[in-house]
Amino acid sequence: MTISVGMGSAAGNVPAALDLEELLATRLLVQGNSGSGKSHLLRRLLEQSAGQVQQVVIDPEGDFVTLADRYGHVVVDGTHGEADLHRIAARVRAHRVSVVLTLEALDAEAQMRAAAAFLGGLFDAERDHWYPVLVVVDEAQLFAPAAAGEVSDEARKASLGAMTNLMCRGRKRGLAGVIATQRLAKLAKNVAAEASNFLMGRTFLDIDMARAADLLGLERRQAESFRDLERGQFVALGPALSRRPLTLRIGPVETSPRSTSPKLVPLPEPASGEALRDLILAPGEEEPSWMPAPRPAPPRPPSPTDLLHQLAQYRPTEPAAEEAPAMPAEEREAALAAILREIAADPDAAHHPVAVQYQDFLVRCRMRRLGGEPPNLAAFRRRLAIARAGIDEAGPESRSADDVLAACAALPDEVQGLFLLLARAAREGAPCPTDDALARAIGSRSPGRARRLLGYLETRGTVVCRTDFRGNRIVALPALSCETGPGDPKAAPVAATPGLFAAE
Predict the structure, then answer these.
(1) What are the CA-CA distances from residue 15 to residues 52, 248, 332, 351, 361 (Å)?
(2) Burial of 164 (0-12, 13-18, 19+ CB in 10 A)
């Protein structure tokens, strides 16, 4: 069954009706400058459909609260907290009560937050409560602005998201959005574009006339006709109104808004200049001699952004750290050497920056409750290179390694690991390490980088490289009077053995 709502009359005094069921599925956009009759149109729609469908009105100026006396709407004050408004909206859907959310006591940002919370409650209602609801939003450009204004980004995004959900995803939840705006240019396009029915009233700005003409499918030269519309006249188009642009005049309403258009009132009889001066400057007889100071506005509740900033600035009083138990120096050094060997033996650790490895080293020290000052980054880099080369400073062969460490001390940190690996292989008479093994010793995945650093050592005279008749590489270390055995530099990498990268 089709339910028609009488909106007024078209040309020739022909009744103009609106298909309510079609409106619930296709939504409505009303546009017109201030004084064009938008609020009168919304009031006519609400009055004519009051007994047919549940209604929710988002009222920023408190004009629609008069519907409560005649049609039983419940007036909800927007000064409730956001959580309360969200719960109230859920109850509105559950009990199918028509309400007017009045926001006149709030500033612009608080209105956006309150509307977002209430619309969010309507949208998030349980599936069993998805009954048809006509959601009327007056001055929709306040809640879905096309550009950022003086309000916080958090409030604007919340309100715009709620309006977008209403117009884009609300149909499946039974929410039919009816939005009215003074200017299409001020309304977010993704919100306006979801309406399929339009009622365009009087407007004068070229950009608004052009957008209205585009929505109605009119030519640009026909857009001038919007300037000629009278108060209460609208051009209608849409499946619930008319398949072709139709000019109609909105009919009368039974209730009246609390605020009316200004009307001229005769001025009082003029009095003499002195009398007027005394009337303004001199206190009256019944006027109290003292007036209380105006109450300051309540402070704005902190936004989530403010709270996050406060949390970032908060510095709690740190409790006294529990001191690690005293540990003998030899035992502590042995524990540090064990940690360094663990990091050196980890195949993935060698490919991370030294700063990351140092952080891992500090964490391991705290886990084992090693007291005292840990080695700094430079000392850690040196000791890690020694551990990767398999030279244990704390072991019984530490004395025989003194000359190796002395020869290594003058080299840059970047090549110390490579030199120590070559020194160990030369001392043991082992084959020359492969390019991959040299790369791992310097914490790299690039064999080419290892070859470049080896060439750098050769230019300094620290090592001497030669190749035998089979193409194997031999590296001599003049400072230590030893050389490695022949080894294929491009041999496939093999699993690390205890004699190469970990202490035996």
Answers:
(1) 20, 9, 96, 81, 84
(2) middle
Q: Which two tokens stand for residue 30?
A: 């009303």
Q: Identify the residue whose tokens are 């019984």.
A: 396
Distance from C-alpha of 363 to C-alpha of 136, rounded to nearest angstrom: 59
| Tokens read off for 453 | 């650093």
| DSSP designation for 442 | T
Q: Rounded CA gap, 172 and 111, in Å?
A: 26
Could you tell me the CA-to-CA distances from 392 to 26, 338, 395, 472, 501 in Å, in that order? Answer: 79, 10, 5, 29, 11
Residue ranges covered by each domain of the chain: 4-250, 329-483
CA atoms within 13 A on the CB side of 185: 9
Fold for 4-250, please state it.
Rossmann fold (3.40.50)
Is the pTM here over 0.70, yes or no? no
SS (H, E, C) 212-251: HHHHHCCCHHHHHHHHHCCCCEEEEEECCCEEEEEEEEEC
Q: What are the tens digits of pLDDT across the range 196-255?
A: 999 988 888 878 788 888 777 777 777 778 888 888 899 898 999 988 888 899 999 999
* C-alpha dist (Å) from residue 142 to 27, 103, 116: 19, 12, 12
Sheet with 464-467, edge to edge strand ranges: 464-467, 473-477, 482-483
